[in-house]
Amino acid sequence: MRYDLQIIASWIEPGSRVLDLGCGEGELLGYLKKEKQVKGTGIESTEAKIDKCIEKGVQVLQGDITEEVHDYPDNSFDYVILSQTLQQVLEPDQLIKDLLRVGNKIIVSFPNFSYWSIRLQILFFGYAPKNRQLPYEWHNTPNIRIITIKDFRRFVRATGCEVIKEVDINTHSDDLQGKIIKFLPNLRATYGIFLVSRRATAANQATIR
Amino acid sequence: MSEYFEHDNDGISIGLIEKKFHTMAEPPDELILASGARLGPITVAYETMGTLNADKSNVILIAHALSGDSHVAGYYSIADPKPGWWDIMVGPGKGIDTNKYYVICSNVLGGCMGTTGPSSTNPATGRPYGLDFPMVTIGDMVKVQKALLDYLGINKLLAVVGGSIGGMQVIEWTINYPEMVTAAIMLATTTRHSALAIAFNEIGRQAIMSDPHFNKGDYYSGPKPDLGLALARMVGHVTYLSDEAMRSKFGRRLQDRDNLAFDFEANFQVESYLRYQGSKFVQRFDANSFLYITKAADYFDVGCQHGNNSEVDAFAGVTAKILAISFTSDWLYPTYQSRDMVKAMKKNGLDVSFCEIEAKCGHDAFLLPNERQSTLISRFLKRVSEEEHHAL
Asked: Which residue from A114, A207, B276, B334 lies 20 to 30 Å from A186 (Cα-Cα)?
């Protein structure tokens, strides 16, 4: 399993209810179902991946993540997972709010655009960055949101939520291995992974809604 | 649904199948229908395939659509030129694998393929019911299927599977008998007909009822309303296809000629095709059954009938694991209708999976060979059957 998914899986309490947005072929949910007896639901837009999820025993809905989350009642899930997708979302702030409505906690992972080699590419070559994590040209990239680890921390604070856990890692987009970066993560990590929850005050609850 | 009777490309089939009959609801214990009318006795035609396992945990009930019957797969005899209507899906090693599952399919109440319907003899008069046959609902059809299973000693269904009007019966099963249904597969179906679907059905019914031979439904001793029924079938066929399917299948190609004939004969291939489908249909289908079954489908409204006008409430007691599939080019029961249904299920926290399959052949796609559909169904069945064994 992808390295960032391994870390995410380690955060999930056994027996919990999990919604995985952009669940792909159901790798994470299949693992969580087997190893942690979670009740998982996946949402995936690609038709060809749906039967792969079902093969792993995962219940899955084909659809657009921003649309599909609306149908769930408040607190339907213990965890909502958004892995390597936030950077492709048109309205991230609205989506995060929606996710915190249907889930008690959300887990978000994204590629860190302030990784040192990306900075150097822009500084020395003057081109939009392209590397193994972000293998696209400016005109065909699905990654329309430029997020850094520091940006996300600030965003979480501004939306009245709190970061319960943060692990920053150095890995490639589909690698099975990687390492945790503790020193200067905004410069040295290729991905940030965050466990976020609503801050438990009434005033902040109101802000989120 | 159209007739395809596709032979499996690999030539694999369940083989010879026998149609069986069971008679129930003998007076004075007639079946009480949704309308309040009493009906009995009722004979049900049904067919079974595969082997029932020791703990009776491998039963799959298949519900057919408008023009289907109990003959879901296999052949009646060696000389039989065509297999059952879903032979591509049901058989050894197929999407619904008869090596693993025990499959039951029965003809619907109101039908004309062996189960009691308007063409059956009315015991009160000794003549065919005709329009004296009571109106039946999708729920009534399911009630008869339940009674058949009681007779067969089956009290648990691993899955109920059906497309189109068959899918409506599947929905009804999950709501009316939640304790019996482990899983449900709903293909190209809807929780209620749109105005468009009702409109096409009404055109079909009007075509039948305005046929000079219709005689208020009492035509069994004379000429039948074949022209009306054929016309109804032609309209139906258009709704089962799609613009794209018709373009690639027929385009503007001419039938057996190089130039326009400047007459009202079937110049175009599509005209010839529809006339052929119409004339073939009247040989095997009863016009009154067409009226009754289409009306039952038009009346079907899950939210209204089970949830005080709320589909969310209607699905509140459902426990079955659900797989819903729609097809991109289905304009009779478009994807948005499946999505609305899935939405109501999600609000109830049901275990539901949904896939919209890219297909160009319209509503009929669920009847045609489709690798994706077969894979989804077989994997879903495998999943629920494993989970069921795990739970025991």
From this structure: A207
Q: Give the C-alpha distances (Å, rounded to integers) separating B110 from B33, B290, B302.
A: 12, 9, 20
Listed by start position, the domains of chain B span 20-193+307-391
Closest Cβ–Cβ partner in A61, A63, A73 for B347: A73
One of B97, B286, B330, B364 is an active-site residue; which one? B330
**Tens-digit pLDDT profile for residues B293-334:** 999 999 999 999 999 999 999 999 999 999 999 999 999 999
**Model ipTM?**
0.90
Report chain B residues whose CB lies below 8 A from the CB of A63.
339, 354
What is the Cα gyration radius of chain B?
A: 21
CATH of domain B20-193+307-391: 3.40.50.1820
Annotation says B363 is catalytic = yes
Q: How far is B361 from B87, CA to CA, in rounded Å?
A: 18
CATH architecture type of domain A3-115+147-208: 3-Layer(aba) Sandwich (3.40)
The three-state (H, E, C) secondary structure of B37-53, written as one string: CEECCEEEEEEEECCCC
In this predicted model, what pLDDT tens digit does every residue of B261-278 receive, in sequence order?
999 999 999 999 999 999
Low-confidence ranges of chain A (pLDDT < 50): 203-209
Q: Which residue of B has its CA nearest to A44?
A: B355
Alpha-carbon distance A61 to B326, whole Å? Answer: 12
Cβ A143 vs Cβ A88: under 8 Å: yes
- Distance, in Å, from the CA atom of B175 to the CA atom of B348, rounded to the nearest integer, reads 13
Query: Is B330 annotated as catalytic?
Result: yes
**Which residues of chain A from 33 to 62 reach within 8 Å of chain B, CB to CB?**
47-48, 50-51, 53-55, 57, 59-62
